[in-house]
Amino acid sequence: MSRYEVRWVLYDLDFANTAAVLRIRRFLSTSGNEIAAPFPPVVAAREVARSTDPVLLASRTRRNAIQDFRAVECCMNALTPSGDPVERTAIVPYRPGDPNCRESVRQILTSENVVNGIYRGEVHAESVWRWL
Amino acid sequence: MARYTMNYFNDLGVCHQRVGLRVYLVDIDNQEFTTTTEQDFEVLPFTFLSAVLLGEVVCSFPGRTRTIRKAVGQKSGSSLLWIIPCPFRAGSSEFERFFRELEDEFEEVFLEGERIDRAFLLRYADVV
């Protein structure tokens, strides 16, 4: 079984009138542990067909202008083989101020096997002037 | 370093009243430097300064606030960065105005999003 699946999600950046198709890798399993990353209905509603346009990558490398996307880092109700809590990251594709942003966080936290989570906002590895 | 009393609006729409927010400088080794009042009034956006409250700080933000890092003196080769908290919710008109007032063709601005800790996130997202 593949450890992850690839999905394309329309993601609103923090800056008004800016959005991009985000290619995310949704974790499905780790070392036989079948805990998948949350992908609740309100987030799935932003899924788009595979795009041939340049897309942003959900990556922590500084090669991307956006270092981290808005997400909830979830602590799951499971342990890794080494005894550490399983962690999964769930993207929040709605801009703050959109009611679906808060609803996304609520649905992620109430997803199956999610114990709790930390919210992290967008982090830009390059100057934000390109988005204004 | 300057510490301002302000209302901070998190990404989930909750207003944290009378939070203490620090403004300071850091160098490439992350050593911190105090800013003067004159420097603050020269660099900080009017949107930020006009939102400062009189009186004491009541609480702290449960996590890490939304923060701007602004390069200063890039033209002269300086490597100092201003660390400026952004108390306005992303997507709001104040947020846009804050960045417009910081805009400078020579000096870069970076955004670090906020982090909201576990117990408080459950409350702010109406889970508990």
What features would you describe in this structure?
The complex is a heterodimer of chains A (132) and B (128). Chain A is mainly β and 132 residues long. Chain A has helices spanning 41-44, 99-109, and strands at residues 4-12, 19-27, 56-57, 66-68, 71-79, 85-91, 114-120, 123-124. The longest helix of chain A has 11 residues, at 99-109. Chain A is globular and about 45 Å long. The model of chain A has no long low-confidence stretch (mean pLDDT 84). With 128 residues, chain B is α+β, with helices and mostly antiparallel strands. Chain B is built from 4 helices and 8 strands; from the N terminus they run E-E-E-H-H-E-E-E-H-E-E-H. In chain B, strands 1, 2, 3, 5, 6 and 7 form a 6-stranded antiparallel beta sheet that branches. Chain B has a two-stranded antiparallel sheet with strand order 4-8. At the A-B interface, helix 2, strand 7 and strand 8 of A face helix 3, strand 7, strand 8 and helix 4 of B. Strand 7 of chain A pairs antiparallel with strand 8 of chain B.
